[in-house]
Design goal:
5-stranded antiparallel sheet; alpha+beta
């Protein structure tokens, strides 16, 4: 499996890239799994909205039709998604 890490631009230019400088694709995927597991018992909002100021981390897997997205707010994972599959999880508490 070949992956590629791309930093999204959901936050302002002054914060882009700051959080994921030392994270590998494998670590970002672990964060994705953790957010999905932690949010499994939480009622999810009908409309997904990223918390203001969150930084998006993406991992693209060549053999998959979607990409993995994780959002961090002050170095804490707060949301995860498979956007093309319309799968979103948000940590509300």
């Amino acid at each position: 499996m070949r992956t590629r890490n791309v930093n999204g631009k959901t936050a302002g230019g002054e914060t882009a890239g700051r959080y994921d400088q030392n994270l590998t694709d494998s670590q970002i995927l672990d964060l994705f799994d953790w957010v999905v597991s932690a949010a499994c018992d939480e009622q999810q909002p009908e409309v997904f909205s990223v918390p203001p100021g969150a930084v998006e981390l993406n991992v693209f897997v060549e053999c998959a039709p979607d990409y993995y997205a994780v959002w961090l707010l002050k170095n804490i994972p707060v949301a995860a998604a498979l956007p093309l599959d319309n799968f979103y999880r948000l940590l509300l508490s």
